[in-house]
Amino acid sequence: MGFYLMLLVEQVDPFSLVADELSLVTNRLRSMVVAKVPKLASAAEYFFKIGVEGKRFRPTVLLLMATALDVPIPTSAPQVEVDSLSSDLRTRQQSIAEITEMIHVASLLHDDVLDDADTRRGIGSLNFVMGPKIAVLAGDFLLSRACVALASLKNTEVVSLLATVVEHLVTGETMQMSTSSDERCSIEYYMQKTYYKTVSLISNSCKSIALLAGHTAEVSKLAFDYGKNLGLAFQLIDDVLDFTGTSATLGKGSLSDIRHATSLALSTHFCCGFHSMGIVTAPILYAMEEFPQLCTLVDRGFDDPVNVEIALDYLGKSRGIQRTRELASKHSSLGSAAIDSFPESSDEEVQRSRRALVELTHRVITRTK
Amino acid sequence: MGFYLMLLVEQVDPFSLVADELSLVTNRLRSMVVAKVPKLASAAEYFFKIGVEGKRFRPTVLLLMATALDVPIPTSAPQVEVDSLSSDLRTRQQSIAEITEMIHVASLLHDDVLDDADTRRGIGSLNFVMGPKIAVLAGDFLLSRACVALASLKNTEVVSLLATVVEHLVTGETMQMSTSSDERCSIEYYMQKTYYKTVSLISNSCKSIALLAGHTAEVSKLAFDYGKNLGLAFQLIDDVLDFTGTSATLGKGSLSDIRHATSLALSTHFCCGFHSMGIVTAPILYAMEEFPQLCTLVDRGFDDPVNVEIALDYLGKSRGIQRTRELASKHSSLGSAAIDSFPESSDEEVQRSRRALVELTHRVITRTK
User: Which of A139, A152, A358, B360 is deepest in the core (most CB within 10 A)?
Assistant: First the structure.
């Protein structure tokens, strides 16, 4: 359920718009995770290696956001040395992108230890390759590097925001371990968990980009809203795709479609232990509102494949997939609306970045993998 | 090898000097680690429970340091509202004590996961009682709470210092896992590791106390030096006590004394896996300078009790224990000298706190457990 986007070839491509700056950020990231101790260095660098660094979805959004909010800010102080200040600002905003990625990778490292995961991003998880000790330490190391980098931005509101994100990541991960039936069968609990675990990071880092630029609380809130709604839409579609796979009939699939596409997903995601609860995402929780007996099934767990089959039967008969897609669309629109409410600007670059951000809200809900 | 001090009943007791303020700090600590998620809350609170909270050695030092540096600071700005400002300052210095303790406990939680430790502070380790997943998460949670509290101090130099400490804790822990023979047989490498893993936290938090009060870089460095030397002396004596136990003939013990006292320590500390390297501390490393063949023994590891016996033979014949105590005394004196170099003050409370800090440097090297 990684937070990445497929690269569709289109006229206005959000990713190519920031490609150059992104490689700068990526290179700096690699140099930031160099540790004095060789073993720690190779561990921390593990996920920043060329080829396995992921789609860099978050840094892309953040760099686009920086340009999208590059508008004159009403201020009482005289503007001196605008050029040097704004280039300094850009560097600090790039730092937010780097810090965000470090926090993200740190949480992946610890999650893999918690889940005893074998693979990550198509290669062996660090936990699997170098052992859980090094994975815990490398995660701690990245968090401390992120914290040091944060402190150097000398903006305590931003430090506080991103420190809170780390707390949210932990809270979300712990909520996921819940053993209460009421909680596991509640869509509200699930959405709250999703916010903490997947969405808080992107929404608060978007807000940080605005705060560093000196925007008002109102504008910073719009940046937050964009990140939050984009993130929620992304995760909800992720949940759908876990059931429907790459089928072109997403959300319209017959039961057999769903069951067929799911068999692979199940074998990789839902097979044993904690992971078996991975099936209880938005589609199942919506299905539960039509078929309350699903809750009893969830309580029994999904170690037994028969229970999985029964759950999928209910899902196929229900509007679970459809309602999940509808909710994702709603969040996609809200994200797009946040951008439309940004302070007016006739600057072409600003407008192009805003269009790219809106484009991302569309891609997130139309993607098929 | 916990960092705590025995309470000796004496006329000027450093601990009773700050006892009231310490319970205030302890209570606030308990309220700070309350999490939204019950499981996480009980995990994070685990080590802040009454009775198992340790000797609160670090908070004691930090509160004494705050008073010891409560002297007028030369400033060009007019002093307004001194009372409200200084009470605010004291609260922020208390926060440093709380943050330091949170970072310390977080590192204990992760260390116990790394070491598969069963017990901690006489009770089951969190790792053992609630499982490694919760221990990793609770550590992360405490770190994020510490980071949020740090950010609220709105002093980016202090944020940076304490974030670097987290990095040092990780670096120290990783150095301890080293598999290079050269490194494992080097006293310099060992002292560097000890600084990162045990001493960086107390020295940098002492420095933070001075920085918050607005002291010069010079005075802040003295505060750092005090913490560093106290911490090093403490750890070196810890190393000695691991071999000599509670014997009254510390450092003068015959071989049989050492071997006898060590048998218990060995069974708890040095028996298997990573822990078996716990025997290679300063005394053994000094002994190695007289008996280089000890290095070969270290390379072989101490899973075999016979190797432990041979190592203890060499240690008994060597000046290892004595030289370790001498080094501890040197650091104890340096710590005391740092206090003597503090800006002059005739304030009685200030002087009493300074005497208490000096008293701690003595207790650290004369303690027998």
Answer: A139
